[in-house]
Amino acid sequence: MHGGCWVVAKRCVMGKLTKRAIDAVETVGSTPSIIWDEQLPGFGVKALSSGVKRFVLKYRAGGGGRNAKQRWMTLGTYGAITLDQGRDLARQALAEIARGGDPQGSKYKLRAAPTLQDVWDRFETEQLSRRKPLTQRDYKAAWKDLIAPQLSSTKIEAMTRDEVGRFHKAMSATPYRANRTLALLSRLMSLAEAWDWRAQGTNPCKHVSRYEERSRTRPITQQELQRLGPALVKLTSEGSLTSTARNAIELLLLTGARLNEVLTARWSWLDLRSGLLNLPDSKTGAKPVYLSATAKAVLKRQKAAAGRSDFI
Fold it and tell me: Rounded CA gap, 35 and 21, in Å?
């Protein structure tokens, strides 16, 4: 008998749970002992053989009833929280249960809920291959280097706008990359909604402000162009610049094509007779790049340097 409480097997029946009774309860060998508070149904303390004592709540889900599933819910550890705090937590849980809730069931559901890693894995398997190769590369780099280390284990249902905002703010030194990474994260969250892994219309990225992006381009001046040609020739003759690099730079200047379009172009796309480089899949879709006589001469020079390579 402890403080007016009789221990029967693992259970102890008492009038009111008190600090004195909690301090006195002990385990029987390795078998846990439980003392219950009769004034608050289902509320008690479970003493473990390790000496740890935890506040618990036993209830039936869905508002109760003999056919309802019985749950055991841990409210906290005695010592970390007081008896009064444990009792308050039990009352809050019982109020939720009375409204038809299932607080422990919600914990189970959240524990089994998909994480951001699950969303990425499905996206990578089902959709990423449909993107352009450069986009695939950028997405994989953003996921591996930035998103995954911080957020991969986060439950999709639990991710908040504040959490996303802090993540985005941490990349303020690289605004362009921060915005592209946020765009990918937003896409993953939208997919989670489409797959019913998160409530509709709750994308936490939606109202996170993007950084202002200032254009980094300016037209090259005539004076710079006049100096560039001789500089390329000089650097190539010195061995500081490969002939392929020189040819690529000249093609960029002569065609107005994007860097990746020039670097990934194939000889099979080239029609020198018509003066066209037919790109099958540029950033804006299939398009022809018109070649001047000077551009054709550069390509002929590059053909000798490229040898048997499929790429220009």
Answer: 8
pTM > 0.90: no
d(CA 92, CA 2): 28
State the distance between the two ends of the chain, measured CA to CA, in whole angstroms: 90
Given the candidates 3.50.50.60, 3.40.190.10, 1.10.443.10, 1.20.58.460, the CATH classification of the domain at 222-306 is 1.10.443.10
HSE-up of residue 203 (Cα within 13 Å, Cβ side): 19
In angstroms, the Cα distances linking 226 to 131, 221, 287 are 39, 9, 30
**CA 68 and chain centroid, separation:** 37
| Tens digits of residue pLDDT in 85-133 | 999 999 998 888 888 888 887 776 666 679 999 999 999 999 999 888 8
6-109 placed in CATH 3.30.1490.20: no
Q: What dihedral angle (degrees, nearest 10) is formed by the CA atoms of 131, 135, 138, 140?
A: 10
Sheet (strand 285-290) strand order: 270-271, 276-282, 285-290
81 pLDDT band, cuts 50/70/90, is very high
Query: For residue 312, which of 274, 233, 255 has the smallest C-alpha distance?
Result: 255
